[in-house]
Design goal:
Length: 224
């Protein structure tokens, strides 16, 4: 990515527009074939980390499968992750040998955050720690909702593991422009309160395609 002068905080609308080169880099990366590579429900099955990796995390129903499918331009790429028995696994997708996309189990569905964090923590901590090829976790948040305690718990886990994470809003189409801008601003403040958080909050919609090119472009410089 091009060098940017430090941006003033809490002004996400001041984000520099994508250059053609940045957009093209993202488009080319995600035009590559994306294939299922591995599924790991326990520590021993986590594949060795070779290519740079991006992990996708979020509450169940946040729109993670839809976003993975929109990014890769496939219709059923992430479907495997929601088949029974697969919901507790890390699913690894190889994007053209340049980037591994990791679908992390959804968390927080109808459960108390403490239980969740405990369930999530075992395998996730084993994965998150000592994974030098893990470039970033994308923490997906439903644009319509303020972060839930489970989201906060996951952010704390990522801070603790010192894994850079970036907040990515899903379902941006469900909000008008002003509420969306307000949500981005509020979450930019949330990001600033977390040591491991990337300062930029991205808004996406799998339904309309909003923000998909920008997210691809954001990830391209992290690929091999
Ligand atoms: P996952 O459980 O996080 O993998 O979520 P899914 O991708 O299965 O989506 C959960 C629900 O959110 C489904 O009903 C989707 O139709 C809906 N959804 C996903 N993406 C979008 C979006 O961009 N906009 C809107 N309005 N709804 C979405």
């Amino acid at each position: 990515m091009a060098d940017h002068a430090p941006r003033p905080p809490a002004q996400p609308e001041a984000r520099a527009p994508l250059s053609e080169a940045e957009e093209a880099a993202g488009r080319i990366l995600f035009a590559a074939e994306c294939r299922f590579a591995a599924a790991a429900g326990e520590r021993a099955r986590i594949p060795p980390g070779a290519a740079p990796e991006i992990a996708f995390a979020g509450r169940s129903n946040v729109g993670k499968s839809s976003l993975l499918n929109a990014l890769t331009g496939r219709h059923a790429l992430a479907r495997v992750s929601v088949t029974p028995g697969r919901t507790r696994e890390l699913i690894f997708f190889d994007l053209g040998g340049r980037l591994m996309l990791v679908d992390m189990p959804g968390y927080g569905y109808a459960k108390a955050p403490k239980t969740l964090a405990r369930e999530w923590q075992g395998l996730m901590l084993a994965y998150l720690r000592g994974r030098p090829n893990l470039r970033r976790v994308l923490l997906l948040l439903d644009a319509r909702l303020a972060p839930k305690p489970a989201d906060e718990a996951v952010m704390a886990i990522l801070d603790g593991a010192a894994v850079t994470f970036q907040l990515v809003l899903t379902k941006a189409d469900a909000l008008g422009q002003a509420p969306l801008a307000a949500r981005i601003e509020a979450l930019t403040r949330v990001a600033r309160a977390h040591t491991a958080a990337h300062p930029d909050v991205l808004a996406t919609s799998s339904r309309t395609g909003t923000g998909i090119a920008a997210l691809r472009a954001e990830l391209a410089p992290l690929a091999a």
